[in-house]
Write a structure and sequence with these properties.
The protein is of the alpha+beta class and 367 residues long. It contains 15 helices and 7 strands. It folds into 2 domains: 140 residues, Cytidine Deaminase, domain 2, CATH 3.40.140; 184 residues, no CATH class. α1 runs parallel beside α4, α7 crosses α8 and α10 runs antiparallel to α11.
Length: 367
């Protein structure tokens, strides 16, 4: 995303901020703390957490520390969504006090369609106001609520008919140790089924991946090399289409085969900037394997979300992952390793490391 592609919205009062937040989060929060992180009048990241999850001493402070470790010079807009005004303001005061040495802060409590500031000023939220309209026109997605988003990542019910179909597909797949054949089949299936346009997760599921292909992808994605290939196929440009592909796979296979597709859907969601879908997909993926050790890929997505890494960092992370990937994965991606050759280099002055800008750019909304 270039600087010219960043949506720019002019907001003049808190009610307009309240109009925008559901689009930043992906749905209208409920009993939540929302933290909007801004630098130079630009939204860098928006974080949401259930109030129940941060009620314990130190829990909210730990979340804020993780965010401000990544954005140490950022400012904050702290919003509590709750019907319990005393509890909401207690949380806001905690967060405000913890950030007193780090950021300029604004606090607001939202209850249904009303907003309230710390000084007692209140107002009504217009869900179809100018800011909400502009956000929708920029392509920011709004789901009715988080439950509807969870439903969008549901698996198919198990049945004898589906089990028979799975058995038939398994007979057509490469042998488990034939890595080259597995990678070739995975690349072919992804290329054939990647949609031309991303799916709208607010709409009922309309499968576009044939069932046999969905089953094959779900099975192949359990192979570590195939999973690496699928992850490395995701770029900032095609991430929404990969999200649509893997969500479709999740919807067509039973829960016992959905763990890897859910992770891949979550990764594509994170890269595309759809944090709400990324969290829901990751939660479902880990719930399906409560006693097992998560794979390195699942740990990667968990850390990216936990450490509030902006999606723009994927360009740098992907390069590192690609450099360490199995050469067979690079070949399947049509990305051969650079040949190792000696060359004559003219020495250049070494820059002061302190002057290097090593922080990856982050997408946002200019406000």
């Amino acid at each position: 995303m270039s600087e010219n592609d960043i949506p720019r919205l002019q907001m003049h009062h808190p009610g307009e901020v309240a109009e925008l937040i559901p689009y930043l989060v992906g749905f209208t929060p409920d009993e939540s703390l929302v933290v909007i992180v801004t630098r130079n009048n630009r939204v860098e990241v928006t974080a949401r957490v259930d109030l129940d999850d941060i009620g314990a001493p130190g829990a909210a402070e730990d979340l804020l520390d993780r965010i401000w470790n990544r954005f140490p010079d950022a400012d904050a807009f702290l919003v509590a969504y709750t019907e319990d005004h005393p509890a909401g303001w207690d949380m806001l005061h905690r967060a405000d006090a913890h950030l007193s040495d780090h950021a300029d802060r604004q606090t607001m409590l939202v209850d249904a369609d009303t907003w309230e500031l710390a000084d007692g000023e209140t107002g009504t939220i217009d869900p179809t106001g100018e800011i909400a309209t502009q956000a929708a026109n920029y392509g920011l997605t709004l789901r009715p609520n988080r439950h509807d988003l969870q439903v969008a990542f549901a698996s198919a019910p198990d049945s004898d008919q589906l089990a028979t179909r799975i058995g038939a597909v398994l007979d057509t797949l490469p042998r488990p140790r034939d890595t080259e054949a597995i990678l070739a089949r995975t690349a072919e299936l992804i290329g054939r089924n990647l949609p031309d346009q991303p799916a709208d997760v607010t709409q009922p599921v309309q499968a576009h991946v044939p069932l046999d292909d969905a089953i094959a992808l779900a099975v192949l994605a359990q192979n570590p090399s195939a999973q690496s290939l699928a992850v490395l196929s995701i770029t900032r440009e095609n991430a929404p289409e990969h999200l649509a592909l893997w969500r479709d796979v999740v919807n067509q296979v039973p829960a016992y085969g959905a763990e890897a597709p859910l992770y891949l859907a979550g990764m594509a969601a994170w890269v595309s900037g759809d944090g709400a879908s990324a969290v829901v997909a990751l939660d479902r993926s880990t719930d399906l394997n409560p006693d097992g050790r998560p794979t390195g890929q699942v740990q990667l997505l968990s850390q990216l979300i936990d450490q509030v890494v902006p999606p723009s960092a994927w360009e740098y992370i992907r390069d590192d992952v690609l450099a360490d990937a199995d050469p067979r994965v690079r070949t399947a991606l049509h990305t051969p390793a650079e040949p190792e050759v000696w060359e004559t280099v003219t020495p250049k002055p070494i820059r002061n490391p302190d002057s290097l800008d090593v922080s990856p750019p982050a997408p946002g909304i200019a406000i």
